Amino acid sequence: MSDLSNTLAVATLGFPRIGPRRELKTALEAFWAGRMDEAALLATAADLRFANWLRQRQNGATVIPSNDFSLYDHVLDTAVMLGAVPPGFDWGEGPVPLSTYFALARGDKDRPALEMTKWFDTNYHYMVPELGPRQDFRLADDKPLREFIEARDAGIHTRPVLLGPVSFLLLAKMRDGGDPLALLHRVVPVYVELLQRLKAAGADWVQIDEPALVLDLDPAVLAAFGKAYPVLAQAAPGLRLLLAGYFGGYGDNLDLVLRLPVAGLHFDLLRGGHEINEVMRRQPTGKLYQLGVIDGRNVWRADLAALLDRLEPVVARLGRDRVILAPSCSLLHVPVDLALETGLDPDLRRWLAFATQKIGELAILARGLGQGRGAVRAEVASAADALEARRISARIHDPKVARRLARVTAADARRAHGFETRRDAQKKRLNLPDFPTTTIGSFPQTAEVRQARAAHARGELSAADYDTFLKAATAEAIRWQEEIGIDVPVHGEFERNDMVQYFGEQLAGFAFTRTGWVQSYGSRCVRPPVIYGDVSRPRPMTVEWARYAQSLTEKPMKGMLTGPVTMLQWSFVRDDLPRADVCRQIALALRDEVDDLEAAGIAIIQIDEPAIREGLPLRRRERADYLAWAVECFRLASSGVRDETQIHTHMCYSEFNDIIQSIAAMDADVISIETARSKMELLAAFADWRYPNEIGPGVYDIHAPRCPDVAEMTDLLKTAATRLEPGQIWVNPDCGLKTRKWDEVRPALANMVEAARRLRRAM
């Protein structure tokens, strides 16, 4: 790993699992639908793993990870590995069956899935392990060992990756509300056993990911690291551990990190770059340093010349044999291979690098640092030319956008009157019953919808015929909502491909790839837009569909938009402008759309912001600034309307306690949130803070195939009514219904409407 004479080692912390053409998604969904058996699914997974290892080696990686692959989620994999399967999932001894694994991930007709939330400040979702106070841990699944041996037998020596025990416990949920770190003494022996088995199989290094090390940690957590790692470091003599924190610098945890008895340390130099200076000053004896110098979370080509300038003195001080080059974090968060983007605009394509290309960039840096700049002169010059072309491109900057942004005042981000005044005006206009029912926006994107969209994109279905198809689907959805008694219908969003992509395709400054998929969770993949230039709205985006939908019903139709922070967070954002300024540009573009929807007669406008909590900086000292501009951007988009126009927002799979004041400061008239999986636990933050506006707590977990009955939903609403005022409560699912099937959605929403009726009768 470090005995190289003429170049530096190149490592990856993890590689995208889904395959260059989403082969994993295809296989998983075929398996779940019964079209593929377990053996075929596992064979597909093995093929993807081998292809990933080979791709990384061919592009210059010399330290290749194993156990970074997952059929659904690596945190779930760790829970299953440790035997942390909650009661009720039909498992007691032996390996955890695949059926149980997927029941934990997705639920089934009898059991809800584990909770799901965001992986630190990314758009990746992980399954929250559920632990008991007397949790019994054991090595129930030796997946890390199996995959190391699988690679070994294929002729590829890998560095196994494990989610570390302290971060695992901190990410978990205790059923009794206790401290998960109290279980550390039970979980560490399982890691010791696994490390010993890996050493016996031929592993020489193991990467242990402890991303919690970049958080603000209290003394008890720091003590947990101090207890666990001396034990792990001695688990298997001769096996060396590389400790990896990422998504930030170690900050005030750096002293602890440098003292831990591990053989190597990973540093995220994209977000904690100054810390390498302290390392050079102190140079802890005998450690190896893995430097995360290529951005593992964005798609822009690296400035190789600047990186060589930065790294040359570091390598000279630490020594070539003590430095490994790496991405800042796992490449899970970027697409697989830019080479597949044959139709992308040539200028933009020249500015980008996906996972495969990022490994190539690392290999160039390794050669340049090991053999001298002359060895990579052409590659460095090519990167410099691309960066300069991007910098001077007329496509990047729009003077009109800059002038408009400069004219924004504080008054532009305030509604004309407070919530109490607005509520009275809205009640008079909308005339809704208590516990009004609605949905979050989207309805199932059936095979027919997807086929029609694809046929239209290929030119096989005319624009007029496609429009006719979409109008028929919309009319049917509205008719059905009226039949079951939905109080505030939605048009179903059949014309939309994705809640970010649909808007980005109509905004200036956005570009889209064809194969730039990344995993969100399980088989759910997203294709983030690339924000490359100044953002504006050339023309209305949703007004005609909203106007058409409203013409089909006397009930108030809800217009649906994706909010500015979510548009930002779920895109690959330009790196030549502060994120706050990009977000303000998006907010002004959406403000135009909100104003036009109101002018078209739409009385309720929902501006979804599921990513606002996701964007919260991991360190507390950085949060106030982010929350200030994030709230400002939402209000900038939403505040141009009259009192009687009701503004909704939606948030899902977020912990709200630490941002509840900022959520209130957004001043949405109604917020809908995910609460079904947590059985209304997330309402505690709103109740404790006495949230003043109206709330729609989700009563239907849309990420599981099960259909909750009327009694279950009624009980959830009764729980909500003990924490909120009855006049505050709306009734809705947890999230949009795009990924569900109609035969699941119809009975679930009918049950939801009946639950609201029962609650009205009971109150």
From TrEMBL:
InterPro entries: Cbl-indep_Met_Synth_N, Cobalamin-indep_Met_synthase, Met_Synth_C/arc, UROD/MetE-like_sf. Its cofactor is Zn(2+). L-homocysteine binds at residues 440-442, 493, 608. Residues 11-316 form the Cobalamin-independent methionine synthase MetE N-terminal domain. Pfam families: Meth_synt_1, Meth_synt_2. Residues 435-757 form the Cobalamin-independent methionine synthase MetE C-terminal/archaeal domain. Keywords: Amino-acid biosynthesis, Metal-binding, Methionine biosynthesis, Methyltransferase, Repeat, Transferase, Zinc. Pathway: Amino-acid biosynthesis; L-methionine biosynthesis via de novo pathway; L-methionine from L-homocysteine (MetE route): step 1/1. GO terms for molecular function: 5-methyltetrahydropteroyltriglutamate-homocysteine S-methyltransferase activity; zinc ion binding. GO terms for biological process: methionine biosynthetic process; methylation. Binds 2 Zn(2+) ions per subunit. Catalyzes the transfer of a methyl group from 5-methyltetrahydrofolate to homocysteine resulting in methionine formation. This is 5-methyltetrahydropteroyltriglutamate--homocysteine methyltransferase. It comes from Zavarzinia compransoris.
